[in-house]
Amino acid sequence: MGEIISIINQKGGCGKTTTAVNLSSALAILGKKVLIVDIDPQANATTGFGVNKAELNSTIYSVISGEAKIEDTIHETMIPNLYIIPSNLALSGAEVELTSQIGYHTILKEAIDPIKRDFDYIFIDAPPSLGILTLNALVAGDSIIIPIQAEYYALEGMADLLKTMKLVESRLKSPCPIKGILLTLYDGRTRLGREVYQEIKNFFSPQEYIFKTIIPRNIRLAEAPSHGKPCIIYDKDCKGSQAYLKLAEELIEMEDEK
Ligand code: ADP
Ligand code: MG
């Protein structure tokens, strides 16, 4: 039975999409069957796999708007075992359309649940807001990964995110356990990076898991999307790719320990 993991932080630029693309690629390379669901209208995960978003006629929006069956929106990627449900700008309309529908926060969950058993992992790449799409990702996910950029103000907005997660739990009766906090864009050479790491440890309660793997700031990770490839395909040996492979192994170990 697949596990649905939503990658959430309403802050833009903290590495959500980079994590969704490269962690799912790494897991697929390690033999897992993985689906990535892009629910950001900016569609960076979609273009990160070289999918031309202008030419798409079946996207996650087609599913949400009831125009397509979810099975018909699953696209292959250049990595065997790895599939994507792409997004495009049409999804930005969903924010408005969804609110007028009954049960609008469970639409994504209801769409994905029937295909859950077809994959080992399903990752949802959320947009940088706490709007309806992110709410749908919180409800659909069995658990949440929160990427946090190692910089000043890294934890700004984190209280709002945790509050939203609590509301989803209490009002919608949908638990959102944290799978792990992931430190991204880390520069270990600076005192700042180390300080932020300590700050994150102090902020979360000790029962929240912080991934042992830390994602370094690595130029190859930033270059890869412009080539329409996950970094693991673009440059498998670079520090960024190696970190995401380690993270994939850490995730698999967590499953084995259960
Ligand atoms: P988000 O999805 O949270 O908005 P992205 O994953 O798109 O964030 O990352 C924001 C920008 O930072 C992108 O240009 C991306 O290529 C770059 N980036 C992300 N992670 C790293 C990293 N570890 N090292 C270098 N650049 C990174
Ligand atoms: Mg993104």
From TrEMBL:
Protein's name according to its UniProt entry? ParA family protein
Give the transmembrane ranges.
none
* CDD domains noted in UniProt: ParAB_family
Kindly list any coiled-coil regions of this protein: none
What positions does the domain AAA occupy?
3-174
What superkingdom heads the lineage?
A: Archaea
Tell me which Pfam families the record gives: AAA_31 (PF13614)
